[in-house]
Specification:
It is built from seven helices and 13 strands. With 229 residues, the protein is of the alpha+beta class. The chain has one domain (2-226). A seven-stranded mixed β-sheet has the order 5-6-2-1-9-12-11. Strands 7-8-13-10 form a four-stranded antiparallel β-sheet. A hairpin with a 4-residue loop joins strand 7 (138-141) and strand 8. Helix 1 (2-16) packs across helix 3 (68-83). The chain starts with a helix and ends with a strand. The relative contact order is 0.15. This is Lipoprotein. Residues 1-23 form the signal peptide. Keywords: Signal.
């Protein structure tokens, strides 16, 4: 199953490397008791015209172009894995080949359930590649009403990026990673100065350019303090 998940990741990486503009969107709706719903979306719609042409090819710049069947099968495998993960339920997918927007969402009993989805995969990646990526991405303390998005920068990311061909590096120029966290309680404060609190004080938005993440200049790490109301 981990092999299938890794294949799923590689398929989308190869698809992203065929375009010059994409956004990864991470959304969480968190309830007061720590349950909630997470949605992860790969939005390549700004490059849909180019991708429509690319999908007709076998490869681009040495990268295999996944077919629609490849992508659908990879998503199915990922959903099957989610279905076997403790605390995960109500799994849904959205596949839009007209606009090249793909998303998977599910309910969770605890953010620890979300962490466990990729924990073993990340642990093996760290051991194999001698990297130091977080195996804990989220935490929520119900006692002090504090939600955290953890992120530890690993310099190997920049090293890997520097080893890419110049043409491949351009792919990340207009790419971004966006997080949106919605709560039932009011947000009192955030630790990441680049994030924004919504007008109704119940959501936090953060968009970081991919190049800023790769270089370590910016981070998606954030501590969000909620008001107990």
């Amino acid at each position: 199953m981990l092999k299938k998940l890794f294949t799923y990741t590689l398929l989308f990486c190869s698809l992203l490397l065929c375009t010059s503009c994409f956004e990864i969107l991470e959304e969480i709706n968190l309830n007061k008791d720590g349950t909630g719903r997470i949605t992860v979306t790969a939005n390549l719609s700004k490059s849909k015209s180019k991708l429509a042409s690319v999908m007709l090819l076998d490869s681009v710049n040495g990268y295999k172009v996944p077919s629609k069947d490849d992508i659908n099968l990879a998503i199915k495998n990922a959903i099957d894995h989610l279905g076997k993960t403790e605390g995960i339920s109500n799994i849904e997918k959205s596949v839009d080949f007209d606009n090249y927007i793909f998303s998977i969402s599910c309910d969770f009993k605890s953010v620890e359930n979300v962490n466990s989805i990729f924990k073993e995969l990340i642990t093996k990646q760290n051991k194999r590649e001698k990297t130091n990526f977080n195996t804990t991405n989220f935490s929520y303390n119900n006692a002090n009403h504090q939600f955290k998005r953890h992120f530890r920068y690993d310099g190997s990311v920049k090293k890997t990026f520097n080893s890419l061909k110049q043409e491949d590096k351009k792919v990340f120029n207009d790419a971004s990673y966006t997080t949106i966290y919605r709560f039932k309680s009011l947000v009192k404060s955030v630790s990441n100065s680049a994030s924004k609190i919504s007008p109704n004080k119940k959501a936090v938005f953060l968009r970081v350019a991919a190049m800023s993440l790769i270089s370590g200049e910016k981070t998606v790490e954030n501590t969000i303090q909620l008001i107990n109301n």
